[in-house]
Amino acid sequence: MVEVRRFLCVACGRTVSVLPPDLIPRRWYSAAAILMLVIGHLLLATRASTLAKLYGPSVLAESWRLPGRLAAQLGTSLWAHRAREVGDGPDVPREHLLSRLLGLAGTHARAPADELRAAAQMLTADPASQRQRAR
């Protein structure tokens, strides 16, 4: 269970959610879990049922389609701002894009889990805020 802080704007009446840095908006899984699922699906050719037992709902293990959906969203709704940095395009296979994204984060598909978690946080962070921190 993750607590998400919500604030009410007194001027317009809308709420604003402040997510922890390792969560991607409108996703049920952390950035690290998503990265591990996509790596397993695209680069390591791990079966969806095996990935479901590791990261997802065991009840749906045989028909779990999330890894494939996440792989298809790579570079569009997942890490789009980073995909542009590594030269994404419609003709770039998702496997190559994932390898480039991992390279941008300074890691590879068979890295230890803690290294992949750090890579996911780096990919999720806004590039402008990272440049400001580096100064």
Summarize the structure.
This protein has 135 residues and is mainly α. 49% of the residues lie in helices and 6% in strands.
Describe, in plain words, how this protein is organized in 3D:
- The chain is mainly α.
- It has one domain.
- The chain is built from seven helices and two strands; from the N terminus they run E-E-H-H-H-H-H-H-H.
- Strands 1-2 form a two-stranded antiparallel sheet.
- A hairpin with a 6-residue loop joins strand 1 and strand 2.
- Helix 1 packs across helix 3, helix 1 packs across helix 5 and helix 1 packs across helix 6.
- The longest helix has 13 residues.
- It is globular.
- The N and C termini lie far apart (35 Å).
- 27% of the residues are buried.
Q: Helical proportion?
A: 40-55%
Which shape, going by the Cα principal axes?
globular
Strand content: 5-15%
Domains, number: 1
Q: How do the strands and helices of this protein lay out in sequence?
A:
Blueprint: E1 5-8, E2 15-18, H1 31-43, H2 48-55, H3 66-73, H4 80-85, H5 94-104, H6 113-124, H7 127-134
Antiparallel strand pairs: 1-2
Attribute tags:
two-stranded antiparallel ribbon, 135 residues, globular, mainly alpha
